[in-house]
Amino acid sequence: MKSTILADGTLSIAPETELEAYALDQWCRVNIDYRRATVHMPKICIDFSGYPGAMLAMVPSSAGESRP
């Protein structure tokens, strides 16, 4: 896993393997509530661009709720 602290203090995290992507996905599900991100804006940038299957459950469905 690669992590960097950007100039503005944001923690940037990017998995480098499928296992790391899975582990980071699980951590995000428990620790980051994206529904309240505008209220409690964390200075964390998580880059799943190399692993498009990660975080699928956090993408809102057509009904506006997270998928299980």
Keywords:
16% strand; single chain; 68 residues; alpha+beta; disordered C terminus; three-stranded mixed β-sheet; 21% helix
Strand order of the largest sheet: 1-2-3
* Percentage of residues in helical conformation: 10-25%
Number of domains: 1
Q: Beta-sheet strand percentage? A: 15-25%
Task: Give the terminus-to-terminus CA distance.
Answer: 26 Å
Shape: globular
Could you tell me the radius of gyration in angstroms? 13 Å
Mean pLDDT: 75
In terms of structural class, how would the helical and strand content be classed? alpha+beta
Number of helices: 1
- Secondary-structure element sequence? EEHE
Quaternary status: single chain
Number of strands: 3
List low-pLDDT spans.
59-68
Largest sheet: 3 strands, mixed
